[in-house]
Specification:
The protein is α+β, with helices and mostly antiparallel strands and about 180 residues long. Helices cover about 25% and strands about 10% of the residues. It has six helices and five strands. A three-stranded antiparallel β-sheet has the order 1-3-2, with no helix packed on it. The chain has a two-stranded antiparallel sheet with strand order 4-5. Strand 2 and strand 3 form a beta hairpin. The longest helix is centred in the first third of the chain and has 12 residues, at about 5-20. It is extended, with a radius of gyration of 22 Å. It starts with 6 loop residues before the first helix and ends in a 23-residue tail after the last strand.
Length: about 180
């Protein structure tokens, strides 16, 4: 995303979904973005952000961090301003019930009677059935179900980091 005109807006959206990541040392003092330098004046994240800090925390290869709460309403409001329209095409590459029945995962074998329940089903499998996802999960990504999306955005700068044919293994949220 380097060089994108609207890079800051993507950071705001990311922070609204996951909460803002705030770098801290092991005692909770705020750190600079380098993850090493304690900011002056020395203040704890709790003293600065208070009740906003309930989004969890952790540690990565840079430093410890804490998160603010996510803001799903803010995310929805902001994305509605950015995405002016969208259309999802049909879901393709859905396995057939016969393929689901033929697949047996050694870690999750068929329960007694389960095959009888779906034996008469024909055509495409139900993507809300967990048996279907056991099969999908065992296949290469390229063989999984997919749908084409067409989106219109308020400013083309939101899409300048994308190229034709890009694929994602999962949606970031149910709202995207």
């Amino acid at each position: 995303m380097d060089g994108m005109r609207l890079r800051g807006e993507f950071r705001e959206l990311h922070d609204a979904v996951l909460g803002k990541r705030i770098r801290v040392d092991e005692d909770g003092y705020l750190l600079a973005d380098d993850g090493k330098t304690v900011l002056t004046p020395r203040r704890t994240a709790k003293a600065v952000y208070g009740k906003q800090l309930s989004g969890g925390g952790g540690q990565d290869q840079i430093s410890h961090y804490v998160r603010t709460e996510s803001d799903p309403e803010g995310f929805s409001r902001r994305t509605a301003e950015i995405v002016t329209s969208y259309e999802a095409g049909p879901i393709r590459n859905v396995p057939l019930w016969s393929e689901v029945m033929a697949f047996e995962d050694p870690d999750e074998p068929w329960e007694e009677g389960a095959l009888d329940e779906i034996a008469d089903l024909e055509g495409e499998a139900d993507l809300s059935d967990w048996h279907t996802w056991m099969l999908v999960g065992a296949r290469p990504f390229e063989e999984g179900p997919y749908a084409d999306f067409t989106a219109t955005v308020r400013d083309p700068g939101y899409l300048e980091h994308m190229v034709g044919g890009m694929r994602w293994s999962t949606a970031h949220t149910g709202r995207v």
